[in-house]
Amino acid sequence: METFFTSQKDVLFSNVEVLIFVFDVQSSDVQKDIEKYQSCIETGIMKYSPEAMIFCLVHKMDLIPKAQREMLFTKRKEELEHLSKPLKISCYATSIWDETLYNAWSKIMSLLIPNRDQLNLKLKKFADHINADEVLLFEKATFLVVGHHMRKEHNDGNRFEKISNIIKQFKLSCNKMQSFFRSIEVRNSSFAAYIELFTANMYIMVVMSDPQVCSAAVQLNINNAKPHFKDTDQSGTM
Q: Any idea what DSSP says for residue 40?
């Protein structure tokens, strides 16, 4: 692997669209990790793919004392930004034990969609048209959020990850029963949430708090909206 990395950089780094570099905060040789990253940037990305998007994950932050995390991440982020100039990078502090890793991958996924502004505009128009509290789009395989419009504030900032985990567990249960998960409706006295396969690569989630809106009406609106999102799905990178 090291030989390929050093002797065939033209093959490895040509036509790169995205570079994701993961740093272990408790690495035994931080300097070596930094040098590898710097080599990737200076002799790889800058030379062969200067238009590539660059993401750096500062991972395993849960192993750092809470009082020191922000300072450590800020210091590492500034160092990486300096080493990457004139290229722009995005840095995320992540851990598998909280929502940070899911949020980082969701942000990366959404940034990889070339027409994300158009996608979010369509979601806004759809949410306004049906008077929905919130409309989200999830990538089909990972259930990462790739599009979102909210018309009503929520207190739980981690709800996307929670929803994703619940649906992924439900999909696993369906697979064990040799069934295919297509849609689900969850309803209580405060709201109703509808999750349905929307395009070839995306699921949609619609949240409604109006008790007068029946399930059939929401289903009809979702079906009518599907043709307007097909072009977005086909031109995306998911």
A: I
Nearest of 182, 112, 191, 122 to residue 144 by alpha carbon: 112
Q: How many CB atoms lie within 10 A of CB 121?
A: 13
Residue 191, SS3 per DSSP: coil
* 66 token code pair: 């809470």
Name beta bridge partners: 75: none
* Residue 187 token pair: 């309803």
Q: Is the pLDDT of residue 236 over 50?
A: no
Cis peptide, bond prior to residue 86, ω within 30 of zero: yes
pTM (whole model) above 0.85: no
Terminal CA-CA length for the chain: 28
For residue 145, give Cα distances in angstroms to 18, 135, 230: 18, 11, 17
For residues 62 and 95, the answer to whether their CB atoms sit within 8 Å is yes
Residues 146, 141: Cα–Cα separation, whole Å: 12
Six-digit token string for 111: 């940034």
Candidates 103, 156, 147, 157; CA nearest to 125 is 147
